[in-house]
Amino acid sequence: MNDYLKYYLKFLGLSGGLKFIFDLKFFFAIIGAQYFYLVLSFFIKPSFHIEIILQIIIIQLFTAIIEELIFRGALLGLIKEYIKYSYFKISAANLFSALLFSAFHLFHHSPIWASGTFIPALIFGYFREKYSLWPAIFLHFLYNSEYFLFF
Hints:
Oligomer: single chain
Radius of gyration: 16 Å
Order of helices and strands: HHHEEHHHH
Structural class: mainly alpha
Strand order of the largest sheet: 1-2
Strand content: under 5%
Helix content: over 70%
Number of strands: 2
């Protein structure tokens, strides 16, 4: 494989394997999303849209891949090149990219929902930094799909 291609795949976080599957924190991130939507369903009546499930899956997979490539792939990778600080095992680069990710969601969500993307964005960034972009894409797809399937 070309050295430039290897560099860019690593820079974007796409060169990691599947080690994240054996990380208990990854399963806690999955369970956390389920718990969040379960609690939320007590306050907001979910409306399950079974007839459009395939369209939701395709759109959410595409959205997760694009947003993760931009925010956790390119942006987080670029910020990490210049900012090396960490706070409580959260890098400053992850913190900054999560803030930008939440701000980006202000364009098409209310401020409360946009701010609600901050914690998941930190979680996605954590797995991108520890393993690769693949667990971030999977978790992003899962979180978005549940949001659009139920609410």
